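Example with several molecule types.
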Amino acid sequence: MTEFIESIDPKREAIVQAATRLFLNNNYRSVSMDKIAQAAPVSKATLYNHFDSKNALLAAVVGELCGALLQTLTQTLSTTDNVAQNLKKIAEVFVELLYSPDGLAMYRLVIAESHEFPELGQMVYDNGAKIAVAQLESYLQPLNDVGILSIANVRFAADAFFSLLKGELHFRCLLSVQPPPNEQEKTQLIESATALFLQGIGYATN
Amino acid sequence: MTEFIESIDPKREAIVQAATRLFLNNNYRSVSMDKIAQAAPVSKATLYNHFDSKNALLAAVVGELCGALLQTLTQTLSTTDNVAQNLKKIAEVFVELLYSPDGLAMYRLVIAESHEFPELGQMVYDNGAKIAVAQLESYLQPLNDVGILSIANVRFAADAFFSLLKGELHFRCLLSVQPPPNEQEKTQLIESATALFLQGIGYATN
DNA sequence: GTCTATAGATCGATAGAC
DNA sequence: GTCTATCGATCTATAGAC
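Resulting C-alpha cells for the full complex:
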C-alpha cells in the first residue's frame, strides 16, 4: 500500500489564496500578475516558477474551489423518511452554496471565462451541478419506482428542483440588481420551491 | 405636437454594430478600442468622438440590445383560452431568446461586467426578465382569482415558470459544456417544464 | 527557488493637421 | 468630423544575479 504525502508548499498556497481572493472579488481580466504577486506576497518570478501562465493559475484556483464545492455537496444527508424534509435538507445545502458571496463570485468568474477557456466550465459542472443533480436523481428514482411519486422524467425533475431554487432571484443577484437573500428569504425560497416541486411531481403534502 | 426625427449617423451605427459583434463573440476586456475601430472601420479618434470611453460604448451596445429584447418580449400573444397553449406560446418566445447564440452571449457579457458596472445589470433586468415575469404574472392573476388555478404566490409562480425553462440546460450552455438545444430539444424542454409547472400550480391537464 | 529589473507588446485615450 | 501619429501607463512574461 503506497502512502501519498501531500507536500504543502507555503509559497504556492499563498499564491493560490491571493489569486482566489482577487479573481473572485474582481474580474479575471482586470487582475494582473503584478497585483497577485504583491498580494501573496512573492516576487513575480516566483509566481511564474509555480505557474506557467495566468491561465494555469486560474485553472488551479478553480480546481481548488471545485474541491471544496465537491466536499460540501457530497456530505451525507437524508436520515428521515419524510420526502419533504429530505428535499429541504438538500435545498438548504444548495441554496447556501448558491447565494454565498463566493458562490456567486465563482459563478460570475466561470461563466465569464468558460467561453474562451472551456475546461473551466467542464470542471465546475462536473464537480458541482452534475453531482447535485445525480444525487437527487438517485434519491427520487426508487421513490418513483415504488409509486410514492409519479414523475414522467426523473432526470428532468431533478434538474427542475435545482432550477426552482436558483430561480430569477439568482439571476438578479448575478446582475447585481439586488443583494443576496438573508436567512428568512432563503427559507421562504426553499419553502415555495419545495411546495411547487412536490405538487408538480405528484406528491401530496399534508 | 412635436415630431421626433431620429437622425441616423452611419458611422455611429457602424461602430455600435462592430462593437456589438466583438463584445458578444469575445470577452469585453479582451476587445480593444483598436480592434473595434478597425472592424467598424473608422479611426480611433472618430470612435472617441462618438463615445467618451469604452464603458460608454458598452452601455450603448447593451442599451440597443435591450431595445431589441424588449420588442421581442412585448409582442402580443395569448389568443386562445387554453392555459397550456398560452403558456407554451410564452415559453417558445422566451426559450428562443434564451438559447440563441446572441442571447447566451449577452447573458455572459452582462453577468461578467455587471459587478463592476451595475447599470448594465439593471438595464438588462428591467428590459428582460422583469417584463417577462410581469407579463406572466398579470396573465396568471385573474385565472387564480377565478379559481381556475390555485397558486399561493403568483409572483413566485411566474418566476418559477421561467426558471424551469432556463433550467440546468441553460447553465450547461453558459459553461460551454454543451451546445445550445436544437428545435426538438427545445420543444421537449417546453413540454416538460409546462407539464411540471401546470401540475405544480394545481391546473389539471387533460 | 527567490529576488530585482526590464523587455516587448498592447492598452485606453489624446494632440494636432486637415 | 475624420484622420495619422503617439503618449504614458500597464500588461504578460523573462533574464540574470544570488
